[in-house]
Amino acid sequence: xxxxxxxxxxxxxxxxxxxxxxxxxxxxxxxxxxxxxxxxxxxxxxxxxxxxxxxxxxxxxxxxxxxxxxxxxxxxxxxxxxxxxxxxxxxxxxxxxxxxxxxxxxxxxxxxxxxxxxxxxxxxxxxxxxxxxxxxxxxxxxxxxxxxxxxxxxxxxxxxxxxxxxxxxxxxxxxxxxxxxxxxxxxxxxxxxxxxxxxxxxxxxxxxxxxxxxxxxxxxxxxxxxxxxxxxxxxxxxxxxxxxxxxxxxxxxxxxxxxxxxxxxxxxxxxxxxxxxxxxxxxxxxxxxxxxxxxxxxxxxxxxxxxxxxxxxxxxxxxxxxxxxxxxxxxxxxxxxxxxxxxxxxxxxxxxxxxxxxxxxxxxxxxxxxxxxxxx
Amino acid sequence: xxxxxxxxxxxxxxxxxxxxxxxxxxxxxxxxxxxxxxxxxxxxxxxxxxxxxxxxxxxxxxxxxxxxxxxxxxxxxxxxxxxxxxxxxxxxxxxxxxxxxxxxxxxxxxxxxxxxxxxxxxxxxxxxxxxxxxxxxxxxxxxxxxxxxxxxxxxxxxxxxxxxxxxxxxxxxxxxxxxxxxxxxxxxxxxxxxxxxxxxxxxxxxxxxxxxxxxxxxxx
Lengths: 376, 220
Prior knowledge:
The structure holds two protein chains of two kinds. By secondary structure, chain A is of the alpha/beta class.
């Protein structure tokens, strides 16, 4: 694969196709086909889809993308821009016309907003909106504004003529940290606001770069949305639980568990369930695609999965609390319940004793009468 | 469905534990505070100390008398199979031990998950056999009430949902785990108010029979 830095950079011609652009950057047809096969493979598509992706991508025109950043930490941008090696994913990222992105664009202030408005006007119905960050709704959304516009207003306005909406990161997909209890800004995910068109959710804190580039490649190749799960996430990346693909899984079955981080068991690859791993309920491709070019992933580096690609992962009851434990404090009503139980039990026993006394009295009173009657 | 698991691990379990504790305390207090008539009869020559007499009766009733053995041997053995099975599952699967550790601060060694899985299958089959025996035997069927069947159900549900959750069968793991915890919550809520209260009271009537019998000279 060629080094993108080996070719002098120049602004792509809007009429240029991706195939032409890659050829210009020195990417061979063979490398391109390898990438198409790789993308088809990681998205669990049939082998024939590789050709379709290659053709689709080669003929794709420069795609306008508007990237909106709301209540977020920029970790998602860090993830997508930190490819491990100069790769075709990078080139696709370079190839798309990123018309608006706070962190990456040169323009600022009014010029930045003007770029967004121009992109919307010139590419109406064709541009992709990528959103990272949640949207605050409390108090008319005053907790996050850009150029004096609330996030809600900017989102609704930008999405109106979009071809597709991709929510990246756990804040945009499920509310993330801003939406965690007690959610002071009334933060909501994008899918709660945009209900008239499909929202592709690529969750994770941050998401795996390949999940983002793979989804964009799919959109560019097929002009359609990939198969999604019940949470709106591409099934190709979020179809399986991390636990099911984890290399530590056999130790779970054998009952061999690390007792603390970096103990002998943890180093030998024993299961991290006991130290709070959320792998069994987390759906993501970390255990298969891994991070940093397939080098490792959190569980491999010795830390349990936090469940960052699942809704409400901050409020799951603690990162280091095993999944089988009760959430919060299950005994908070126990003392009160015991006191009530004891009181009701004592009252019930006293009532039974009184009833017994009354019955005995009645029997005693009736006895002489009965004896007298018998005499008669 | 993460919401189901959250509900099960959170409010459902907190509520169930409160009802369980309140209910068990209620049953025990209301039983032990009842009036007990003093036995004023004279001690017999060979009377055993109260504790020994009670223990003897508890142990004696752990196996059928020879006259009944032929008819009740399967029921007795089957009873042991699922009781021991349930104890192994509840107290020796690591996720369960972690639950108790979080609740009570106690920790003890566990068995491999695969072993517990096999025990669960045996226990499930044994419970089904117990139900079939109950239905198939006319006498048992006649004396069976809602309490018997419902107590069986709330015992069986955690076993079967545990097996299904471990096998990842039919639904996503978080949904199955949520259902498993909810089935345990149902068991805890029902336990104090039905025949499952024998968790705590099984040996009380045996002692209550054994000690006075010994005092009155019965040779058991």
